[in-house]
């Protein structure tokens, strides 16, 4: 809902209530007017105008400039007409004008529609009309004029600030949505395209011949794509195939594998999904999996993202823990969350290495693990002691959905 929409609704109510007040005030003092029929004619016109336009100030689209000009004209006409239908004694005594405080609605409409500048113009015109009606700048008249002038300009300024804040918030939300989409695409690229390109580069270099040239081209594209994903922080390098191999070794990750070969990305069905069924294919000679004896259910999208984060953690184990390193996956089913712990017995991660890897364009932990869990409303805690391995705890709250 727009921040100014409540102001338009309040203005609609103000106009209706102040019309009732003006009619009651006129009826109460009817006999005291010098020409009560003229006043009654104006009040009839004002009532008809309100009956036809009461909802014109319910939204900025309906409240047009032409309507505001007509509304303000009717208010000014009522103020000036008071000098003709009321007695000089009552006017000098400070009697209310025919439209009374209904006039403020016209000024407030200008303030909400056009900001403090329109409010200044409208309140100035009302102030001049009131001074003409009184014939002299009496103390109470000056007091009322200043009150309307200051309050309308203040409201107009507040409306302008509210609109600017709303635009800023909308822009921030757009940037946040674009950033989340960029991270999602980066995770997909990281888990698929980048790993395949890195594998082609390594296999091509090992085979030699034409395959080496194909591997060199794959390495070039892998580095350029990783640079794009990382936001341009890692410049692409050019030169010999050995330099491409060096860059690919710095940036690439292995394709997830199990005891029977590559583990395809799971495609869970719609509705609740058993997380254990998605994690079980990772088990093998070097990876142990343990979980409850019953199904651990999550929404399909959340379960798929959790399984992908586990796969990314295992990729890092295979890549960085060295040959012969073992990994353990522990699945826990808590009342309010699903927890998956991935632990290895590798050399651990040196202090500051994750920050350096992110600057180099290696987004395995930043996007494929932490980014996924953040989008699910969960958390990814990483504990690593040099020489004692690494432990990653992934926590997904119940009811999580991708993109939340």
TrEMBL record:
Gene3D superfamilies: 1.20.5.1930, Histidine kinase-like ATPase, C-terminal domain
Domain of life: Bacteria
Keyword set, alphabetical order: Kinase, Membrane, Transferase, Transmembrane, Transmembrane helix, Two-component regulatory system
Entry-linked Pfam families: DUF5931, HATPase_c, HisKA_3
Coiled-coil blocks: none
Gene Ontology molecular function, alphabetical: phosphorelay sensor kinase activity; protein dimerization activity
Gene Ontology CC annotation, any one: membrane
Keyword check for Transmembrane helix: yes
Ranges where the Histidine kinase/HSP90-like ATPase domain occurs: 301-400
Parts of the chain that traverse the membrane: 12-30, 36-55, 67-85, 105-129, 141-159
NCBIfam families to which the protein is assigned, alphabetical: HK_morpho_MacS
PANTHER family on file: NITRATE/NITRITE SENSOR PROTEIN NARX-RELATED, OXYGEN SENSOR HISTIDINE KINASE NREB
Protein name, per record: Histidine kinase
Organism: Streptomyces eurocidicus (Streptoverticillium eurocidicus)
């Amino acid at each position: 809902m727009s921040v100014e929409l409540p102001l338009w609704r309040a203005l609609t109510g103000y106009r209706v209530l102040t019309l009732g007040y003006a009619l009651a005030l006129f009826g109460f003092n009817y006999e005291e007017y010098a020409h009560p029929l003229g006043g009654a004619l104006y009040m009839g016109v004002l009532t008809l105008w309100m009956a036809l336009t009461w909802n014109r100030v319910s939204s900025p689209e309906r409240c047009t400039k032409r309507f505001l000009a007509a509304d303000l004209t009717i208010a000014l006409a009522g103020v000036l007409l008071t000098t003709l239908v009321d007695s000089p004694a009552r006017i000098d005594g400070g009697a209310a004008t025919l439209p009374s405080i209904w006039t403020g609605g016209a000024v407030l409409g200008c303030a909400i529609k056009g900001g403090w500048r329109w409010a200044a113009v409208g309140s100035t015109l009302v102030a001049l009309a009131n001074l003409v009606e009184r014939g002299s700048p009496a103390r109470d008249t000056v007091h009322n004029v200043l009150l309307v002038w200051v309050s309308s300009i203040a409201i107009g300024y507040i409306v302008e600030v509210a609109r600017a804040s709303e635009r800023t918030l909308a822009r921030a939300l757009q940037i946040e949505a674009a950033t989340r989409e960029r991270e999602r695409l980066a995770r997909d690229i990281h888990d698929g395209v980048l790993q395949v390109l890195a594998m082609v580069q390594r296999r091509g270099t090992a085979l030699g011949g034409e395959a080496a040239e194909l591997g060199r081209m794959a390495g070039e594209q892998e580095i350029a794509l990783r640079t794009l994903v990382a936001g341009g922080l890692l410049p692409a390098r050019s030169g010999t195939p050995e330099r491409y191999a060096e860059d690919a070794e710095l940036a690439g990750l292995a394709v997830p594998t199990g005891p029977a070969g590559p583990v395809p990305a799971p495609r869970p069905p719609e509705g609740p999904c058993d997380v254990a069924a998605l994690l079980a294919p990772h088990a093998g000679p070097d990876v142990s999996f343990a979980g409850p004896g019953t199904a651990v259910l999550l929404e399909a999208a959340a379960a798929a993202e959790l399984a992908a984060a586990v796969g990314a953690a295992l990729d890092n184990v295979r890549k960085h823990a060295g040959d012969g390193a073992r990994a353990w996956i522990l699945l826990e089913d808590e009342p309010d969350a699903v927890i998956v712990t991935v632990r290895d017995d590798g050399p651990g991660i040196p202090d500051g290495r994750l920050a350096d890897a992110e600057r180099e364009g290696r987004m395995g932990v930043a996007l494929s693990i932490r980014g996924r869990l953040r989008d699910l409303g969960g958390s990814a805690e990483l504990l690593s002691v040099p020489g004692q391995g690494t432990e990653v705890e992934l926590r997904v709250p119940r009811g999580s959905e991708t993109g939340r």
